[in-house]
Model the fold of this input.
Amino acid sequence: MASLSQARLLDSPKLSLVARLKMDAESPSCWESLVQIQACTGEVILFFLNGETYLGDSCCHAIHTIGHQCWPNMLETLGYNTEEGDILQGYCDHETAKSPPSPPSSLSVKASKVVPVKALLP
Done:
Protein backbone atom coordinates (compact mmCIF):
# COMPACT_ATOMS: atom_id res chain seq x y z
CA MET A 1 0.00 0.00 0.00
CA ALA A 2 1.62 3.19 -1.16
CA SER A 3 1.18 6.45 0.67
CA LEU A 4 1.39 9.74 -1.08
CA SER A 5 1.80 12.97 0.73
CA GLN A 6 1.72 16.26 -0.96
CA ALA A 7 1.84 19.74 0.35
CA ARG A 8 -1.36 21.56 -0.23
CA LEU A 9 -0.84 24.38 -2.66
CA LEU A 10 -2.42 27.66 -1.75
CA ASP A 11 -4.34 29.30 -4.55
CA SER A 12 -3.20 32.75 -3.56
CA PRO A 13 -1.25 33.47 -0.42
CA LYS A 14 -3.06 36.28 1.35
CA LEU A 15 -0.54 37.58 3.85
CA SER A 16 2.83 36.29 4.91
CA LEU A 17 3.44 35.30 8.51
CA VAL A 18 5.59 38.40 8.95
CA ALA A 19 2.73 40.62 7.77
CA ARG A 20 0.13 38.81 9.92
CA LEU A 21 2.32 39.17 12.99
CA LYS A 22 2.84 42.84 12.17
CA MET A 23 6.61 42.44 12.08
CA ASP A 24 7.18 44.20 8.78
CA ALA A 25 8.60 47.69 8.48
CA GLU A 26 5.20 49.17 7.64
CA SER A 27 3.52 48.08 10.89
CA PRO A 28 3.10 50.76 13.56
CA SER A 29 5.12 49.38 16.50
CA CYS A 30 2.59 46.67 17.34
CA TRP A 31 4.96 44.56 19.41
CA GLU A 32 6.23 47.54 21.40
CA SER A 33 2.62 48.48 22.15
CA LEU A 34 1.89 44.95 23.30
CA VAL A 35 4.82 45.09 25.74
CA GLN A 36 3.60 48.50 26.94
CA ILE A 37 0.13 47.10 27.67
CA GLN A 38 1.78 44.50 29.88
CA ALA A 39 3.69 47.26 31.66
CA CYS A 40 0.52 49.25 32.40
CA THR A 41 -1.51 46.33 33.75
CA GLY A 42 -1.54 47.92 37.22
CA GLU A 43 -3.09 51.10 35.85
CA VAL A 44 -5.77 49.12 34.03
CA ILE A 45 -6.62 47.12 37.15
CA LEU A 46 -6.99 50.31 39.20
CA PHE A 47 -9.04 51.80 36.36
CA PHE A 48 -11.63 49.04 36.74
CA LEU A 49 -11.42 48.14 40.43
CA ASN A 50 -11.16 51.55 42.05
CA GLY A 51 -13.05 53.49 39.41
CA GLU A 52 -10.03 55.68 38.71
CA THR A 53 -10.65 57.47 35.47
CA TYR A 54 -7.06 57.93 34.44
CA LEU A 55 -4.69 55.91 32.33
CA GLY A 56 -1.26 57.24 31.44
CA ASP A 57 -0.50 58.54 27.97
CA SER A 58 1.78 55.61 27.12
CA CYS A 59 -0.84 53.10 28.26
CA CYS A 60 -3.57 54.77 26.18
CA HIS A 61 -1.28 55.07 23.19
CA ALA A 62 -0.56 51.34 23.39
CA ILE A 63 -4.25 50.43 23.71
CA HIS A 64 -5.12 52.72 20.82
CA THR A 65 -2.34 51.34 18.60
CA ILE A 66 -3.20 47.70 19.34
CA GLY A 67 -6.93 48.21 18.84
CA HIS A 68 -6.86 50.32 15.70
CA GLN A 69 -3.65 49.53 13.86
CA CYS A 70 -2.58 46.04 14.89
CA TRP A 71 -4.91 43.38 16.25
CA PRO A 72 -8.46 44.61 17.04
CA ASN A 73 -9.30 41.58 19.24
CA MET A 74 -6.04 41.50 21.18
CA LEU A 75 -7.49 42.91 24.40
CA GLU A 76 -9.91 39.97 24.57
CA THR A 77 -7.01 37.61 23.93
CA LEU A 78 -5.20 39.19 26.89
CA GLY A 79 -8.11 38.37 29.19
CA TYR A 80 -10.31 41.45 29.06
CA ASN A 81 -13.90 40.76 28.13
CA THR A 82 -15.57 42.58 25.24
CA GLU A 83 -17.12 45.23 27.48
CA GLU A 84 -13.83 45.98 29.26
CA GLY A 85 -11.99 46.18 25.94
CA ASP A 86 -14.62 48.56 24.57
CA ILE A 87 -14.39 50.73 27.70
CA LEU A 88 -10.59 50.89 27.50
CA GLN A 89 -10.60 51.67 23.78
CA GLY A 90 -13.35 54.27 24.17
CA TYR A 91 -11.54 56.00 27.02
CA CYS A 92 -8.21 55.96 25.20
CA ASP A 93 -9.73 57.06 21.89
CA HIS A 94 -11.22 60.04 23.69
CA GLU A 95 -7.97 60.86 25.51
CA THR A 96 -5.89 60.45 22.35
CA ALA A 97 -8.24 62.69 20.35
CA LYS A 98 -8.25 65.54 22.86
CA SER A 99 -4.54 65.65 23.61
CA PRO A 100 -2.07 67.01 21.10
CA PRO A 101 0.87 64.82 20.19
CA SER A 102 3.68 65.04 22.70
CA PRO A 103 6.85 66.73 21.51
CA PRO A 104 9.98 64.62 21.62
CA SER A 105 11.28 64.70 25.15
CA SER A 106 14.84 65.54 25.99
CA LEU A 107 16.50 63.90 28.92
CA SER A 108 16.78 66.08 31.96
CA VAL A 109 18.14 65.28 35.36
CA LYS A 110 16.68 66.81 38.48
CA ALA A 111 18.58 67.04 41.72
CA SER A 112 16.87 65.38 44.64
CA LYS A 113 17.65 64.76 48.26
CA VAL A 114 19.54 61.53 48.87
CA VAL A 115 18.44 59.63 51.97
CA PRO A 116 20.95 57.11 53.35
CA VAL A 117 19.63 53.55 53.53
CA LYS A 118 20.42 53.36 57.25
CA ALA A 119 18.00 56.21 57.88
CA LEU A 120 15.20 54.18 56.35
CA LEU A 121 15.84 51.02 58.37
CA PRO A 122 14.48 50.65 61.94
